Every structure is written in C-alpha cells, then in structure tokens.
C-alpha cells in the first residue's frame, strides 16, 4: 500500500504541476520585487488607495509574518500584508496588495462565491482532517463503505477549493483593473504585475488538481469507481 504504483500514477502529474506552480509564483515574485513601481507607492499604500477608490471603509491594513502570508480576514475586516509586501514599493508588492484589497471589495459587495467559501470553511476543515485518514483505513480494511464515507468528507475539501477558484481569479481581475484606474501602475508596467498574480492563481488550480487526483485514486483503488462491490 505504501508503495502502490497506482498512487504515483494518479498523484505524480498533479504533484509536478503543484511544484511548477509554486516555483513559478516564487520566481515571478522575486523577479518583480526588484522592479520599482512608477507611482512610488508601497504595498500598504496601494491597498489603501484601491480601497479608497472603491469607497470601502473600515478595513484595517496590518503586517503579517512569513513570506507570501498575505490574506484578507472577512470576520475582522483586516487586510494582512507580509513583510515583503507591506513596505515594498515594487510591482510584485503592489500587485499582491491590490489582490488582497480585491477580496475586501468582494466582501463589501457581497460577492456570492466569497460568501459560499466562508460557509464551507467548517466542513472543509473537518474533511481535510478526517477524510484522507478514513479513506486510507478503508483501503487497509478493504471496506468500500469506509472509503465512501471518507470520500464524502474529503469532497468537502475539493468543493472548497473549487469555489476558491472564482474568488481568487475575480480578486486578481479587480486588482488588475483598479491599479490602473487609480494611477498606481501604468498600463505598460502592469504586465509584470499580471505575471505575479497569474502565477499565484495557478497554485489554486494545482490544489484542485491534487485533491481531485487523491480522491480519484482512493475511489478507483477501492473499486468504487469501477463498480465493484464488497
């Protein structure tokens, strides 16, 4: 079981894709972190200008620790920017900050997929912690019923990740438009910012691919997908 060739057959393509997406994100962030933005704004200043331009009030912009730990917290209405983004006056920093501001705008505008993703957080957390283990032990015990229960739990994770895709792509699209509209980034230099955001978006696609590959592996390995019964 631990060295099942079928597991690597299913997982390897998604794993390679995830590695590529992660490498591409870090490479583009590193490259465009060295390119100053023409407006001279820092990541925090850019996020504030985007929010002000959208007439969004009451959102705190704070520092967070860790590389690329940037995120928006709807519950606290706080926009956390990592140390490499908050003070940096680069295309990469401005792009990421504007992306997170895009999430704050989604929240204020009651963007449907963002609301759905927030509702799915508890079930996704349960599915992430239990789903894989239940499927694993279901295979060990040759119990299709147990695998099916685990698959249902794990599907909550996959659903959460699928719903995350439009949320992330929409936030990036908002950021790309708003940085130009608000005079933060010029039309020509925005191409570099786009590369950073597009690369980051691929990490979410890779997460969906990895979860889907994992789920399909357990279903096929247990015989459920093939129609076999205990």
Would you spell out the secondary-structure blueprint of this structure?
Elements: H1 5-32, H2 43-53, E1 60-64, E2 71-73, E3 78-82, H3 83-86, H4 91-108, H5 112-140, H6 144-181, H7 190-222
Parallel strand pairs: 1-3
Antiparallel strand pairs: 2-3
Write structural notes for this entry:
With 230 residues, this protein is mainly alpha-helical. It has one domain. It is built from seven helices and three strands. Strands 1-3-2 form a three-stranded mixed beta sheet. Helix 6 runs antiparallel to helix 7. The radius of gyration is 20 Å and the shape is elongated. It starts with a helix and ends in an 8-residue tail after the last helix.
Index terms:
230 residues; 3 strands; single chain; 3-stranded mixed sheet; mainly alpha
Q: Going across the major beta sheet, what is the strand order?
A: 1-3-2
Compressed to H and E, one letter per element, the order equals: HHEEEHHHHH
Radius of gyration: 20 Å
How many separate domains make up the residues?
1
Number of strands: 3
Q: Categorize the overall geometry.
A: elongated
The percent range for helix content is over 70%
List segments where confidence is low: pLDDT < 50 over at least 5 consecutive residues: none
Q: Average the pLDDT over all residues and give the rounded result.
A: 92
**Distance between the first and last residues' Cα:** 19 Å
Give the count of helical stretches: 7
Strand content: 5-15%
Helix and strand content put the structural class at mainly alpha
What can be said about the biggest beta sheet? 3 strands, mixed
